[in-house]
Write a structure and sequence with these properties.
- About 55% of the residues lie in helices and about 15% in strands.
- The chain has about 475 residues and is α+β, with helices and mostly antiparallel strands.
- A hairpin with a 2-residue loop joins strand 4 and strand 5.
Length: about 475
């Protein structure tokens, strides 16, 4: 079919050259220069409308016609004047260059239109996933939306953990179950050109979690990868919602602790997956991205690193709450300890002052650096959540006998005396704040467990309306038997 189409266009291209020759040589006789421009216009139109093959054919035939009819001696394929050889060669080169440039511009325009279409379709699917109905199957909704938005005849989404297959589109896909499972097990793409069927694995963090089958659906490589990432987000969202629901049901049971911590870990993974999917989509065709979009992509990558740290913290918190604390102690400078924890909050301070009052000559503390960083981050995060956006924070460190006292002060609403110890209880969140401020009620509890495992302590001092102080003591030398 393609050969027949190219042959027809080639014949039409020859007809156009013949028409230009007839007009310039018989109907409206013109000189060689005018005829050359007429041929170039014809070649340019052919290249723009059809493509390179037809334009090259027209260029060579036009060169022969130009020689035969417009360069002396007329009516012969020879040239008497050597200058006309230069003119003929210049005409041929110009025709070929114009054909190439016009065809390249045409291809670039087609690629730009295809990229714009892919972007619009991916945005429409992302919006549909965000607005999906909570009472209906996520996999089924995604399959139907893919079939509608990408105009696919047949779609099937396979969720490996649940074993469910969700069909979409108007075309049935016989025997698709085996192919979907094979794509997950082998982590390979199956592309049947004859039937127009494509089966690709859906991965999350390099691990296959499902697969996607598309029938008669035209997608570029970049658009397909972005589509697979969006499907991964949708499937992960299902598991996140299911985990959160299990946590709510198990709130009063003994298994509530592990369920809630699992939900928190998934809550961290969901934005991480979304950021990665967005980065993949924006970096597809990055050569055409404007500088502002490159800057956004850079921000996305930075936020991915920050969320990776949150996931690591969640795992450590789960281990600590389960009583599985393993300390890897070494001497640490107090200044470096505090600055390392503060550095993680640079983007969240938003102009807020966090002053340091760390006295010189402090002895080194003997701690597990990663765990104490986690404890300090919980205290700073708590202060940022519960104090006014413009109010300053202060962190202070001083030596006390065989320990170092680190104090974090904020100017928040304060804590009544009867609640000063309860704020460190698991899942405790006081008053209206639990409805307005996000959190699990585990941060302060985990921080105190870490400090106490080091042989130190963590407590609060506060008065309503006058802010709060959280004080942490850390040992300056190793104590036998505490680990």
């Amino acid at each position: 079919m393609r050969i027949e189409r190219v042959a027809l266009r080639g014949a039409l291209s020859l007809a156009i050259v013949a028409a230009v020759t007839l007009i310039c040589n018989h109907l409206f006789p013109v000189n060689a220069t005018t005829a050359g421009f007429a041929y170039l216009i014809g070649v340019l139109w052919i290249a723009t409308t059809w493509g390179m093959i037809e334009a090259f054919l027209a260029s060579f035939v036009a060169t022969f016609c130009f020689n035969y009819f417009f360069l002396p001696p007329f009516g012969r394929l020879t040239i008497a004047d050597p200058q006309n050889w230069v003119a003929l060669l210049a005409f041929l080169v110009t025709s070929l260059v114009v054909s190439h440039l016009s065809d390249r511009a045409k291809n670039q325009a087609q690629e730009a239109r295809a990229h714009q279409r892919d972007t619009e379709q991916l945005y429409a699917l992302s919006r549909a996933i965000l607005l999906s109905h909570p009472d209906r199957s996520m996999g089924g909704q995604v399959a139907l939306q893919i079939a509608r938005i990408f105009d696919c005849q047949g779609v099937a989404v396979y969720d490996a953990p649940s074993g469910e297959i969700y069909p979409g589109g108007i075309e049935d896909l016989p025997g698709i179950e085996a192919k979907l499972k094979q794509a997950v097990m082998g982590a390979t793409v199956l592309n049947e050109a004859d039937s127009g069927l494509l089966v690709a694995p859906v991965t999350l963090g390099g691990r296959p979690i499902g697969s996607l089958a598309l029938s008669r659906c035209a997608l570029s490589e970049g658009a397909l990868q972005a589509l697979l990432n969006l499907v991964a987000i949708a499937l992960e969202r299902v598991r996140t919602e299911e985990t959160a629901n299990r946590a709510e049901v198990a709130r009063q049971s003994e298994e509530f602790k592990s369920t809630l911590l699992d939900a928190i870990a998934h809550e961290f993974k969901t934005p991480l997956t979304s950021i990665k999917a967005a980065s993949t989509s924006m970096l597809t065709g990055s050569e055409s991205l404007a500088p502002p979009f490159r800057e956004l992509t850079s921000i996305i990558d930075e936020e991915t690193d920050r969320l990776s740290l949150l996931v690591s913290d969640a795992v450590k918190m789960a281990q600590i709450d389960a009583g599985k604390i393993r300390l890897d102690r070494r001497p640490v400078d107090v200044q470096d300890l505090c600055e390392g924890a503060i550095a993680q909050f640079e983007h969240r301070l938003e102009g807020r002052i966090l002053s340091r009052n760390i006295r010189g000559g402090l002895p080194q503390v003997f701690v597990d650096l990663d765990l104490i960083h986690l404890a300090l981050r919980q205290l700073i995060d708590n202060a940022l959540k519960y104090s006014a956006p413009a109010s300053p924070l202060e962190i202070e460190a001083e030596a006390e006998e065989d320990r170092v006292l680190i104090t974090l002060r904020d100017q928040g609403p304060g804590i009544p005396a009867k609640y000063l110890d309860r704020v460190f209880d698991k899942f405790y969140r006081k008053g209206a704040g639990k409805q307005q401020i996000p959190g699990s009620g585990l941060g302060l509890h985990i921080a105190r467990e870490i400090v106490r495992a080091h042989g130190g302590d963590l407590w609060a001092k506060s008065e309503p309306g006058r802010g709060s102080e959280f004080r942490m003591t850390l040992p300056v030398r190793e104590r036998g038997g505490e680990e």
